[in-house]
Q: What sequence folds into this?
């Protein structure tokens, strides 16, 4: 029987551990602070930022939300980041992606103080991750490692196939899979839009991570018997529902489930872990900046 991986349950367990860390910091007079910056009218981005704020509130993390109209010049965003870099109450800064086309994404990521870069996207933090000395692991791939560990999915010696090479998921996921530590030691293949014979590669995966951004691109025919399938996609497709859309992953769930030994659903799979690991990084940032040790989950 196929195991349906319950992301909400795993995220709740991690968040309980994070709440204890917040108490430890509070006992020493430190409240972790996360600044979220939204420069977009996109509904999904607004939803994700609200979810982040709500989770902060639940865990006792102070959230500072900033909205910048998408037609403002890039300098408005840079000035805001500079102010947040200088604010001692803010331990972590997150600029919700994507930013508008006229704002250069790399310049945004490089503007954030790497000590406060709780997304782990600044080149200094990317370099640390690649070197095997991560400070802040990017939230989604780190969450996927937590999901695999929670369901005893062994990565050591496994064939891991990552479909997608984004800076947010694909690249850091592949880097974590090849590290010489728990959750790593996998023989890792990264596939993308120019990959030839994609199905041949995906069928070979013991652990298949789909992060393509293309709704239901990976179907059962592309999944090997007994694989663990991790679906990162959260795509809104038009549907006759109250909201006018439904959420589907990058994996065609029903056909992939027939082949997989374990699979994440959408929603309720990887998504909740993205938020939980952001809280983790924020508390880690507060701990590093205050010098107060915490026992992270
Ligand atoms: N600065 C960043 N921007 C973006 C990131 C990121 O990690 N940092 N990741 C994605 C979006 N994302 C977080 O920002 C995100 C996506 C999905 C979820 C989630 O919990 N999804 C739910 C469904 C939610 C819904 O109803 O729409 C689920 O899958 O169960 C959380 C965070 C791009 N931008």
A:
């Amino acid at each position: 029987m196929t195991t349906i991986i319950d992301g909400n349950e795993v995220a709740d367990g991690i968040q309980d551990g994070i709440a204890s860390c917040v108490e430890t910091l509070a006992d020493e007079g430190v409240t972790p602070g996360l600044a979220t910056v939204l420069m977009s009218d996109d509904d999904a981005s607004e939803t994700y930022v609200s979810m982040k704020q709500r989770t902060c509130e639940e865990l006792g993390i102070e959230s500072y939300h900033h909205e910048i109209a998408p037609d403002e010049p890039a300098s408005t965003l840079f000035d805001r980041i500079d102010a947040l870099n200088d604010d001692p109450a803010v331990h972590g800064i997150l600029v919700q992606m994507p930013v508008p086309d006229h704002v250069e994404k790399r310049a945004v990521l490089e503007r954030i103080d790497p000590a406060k870069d709780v997304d782990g996207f600044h080149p200094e933090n990317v370099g640390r991750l690649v070197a095997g000395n991560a400070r802040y692991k990017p939230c989604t791939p780190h969450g996927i490692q937590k999901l695999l560990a929670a369901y005893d999915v062994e990565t050591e010696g496994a064939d891991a196939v990552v479909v997608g090479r984004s800076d947010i998921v694909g690249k850091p996921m592949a880097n974590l899979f090849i590290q010489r530590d728990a959750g790593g030691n996998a023989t890792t293949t990264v596939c993308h839009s120019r990959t030839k014979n994609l199905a041949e590669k995906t069928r070979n995966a013991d652990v298949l991570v789909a992060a393509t951004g293309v709704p239901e691109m990976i179907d059962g025919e592309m999944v090997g018997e007994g694989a663990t399938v991790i679906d990162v996609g959260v795509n809104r497709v038009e549907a006759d529902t109250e909201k006018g859309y439904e959420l589907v992953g990058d994996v065609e769930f029903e056909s992939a489930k027939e082949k997989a030994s374990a699979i994440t659903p959408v929603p309720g799979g990887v998504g909740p872990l993205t938020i939980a690991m952001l809280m983790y990084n924020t508390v880690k940032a507060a701990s590093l900046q205050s010098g107060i040790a915490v026992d992270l989950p």
In short: The chain has a mean pLDDT of 98. The first strand starts at residue 3 and ends at 4.
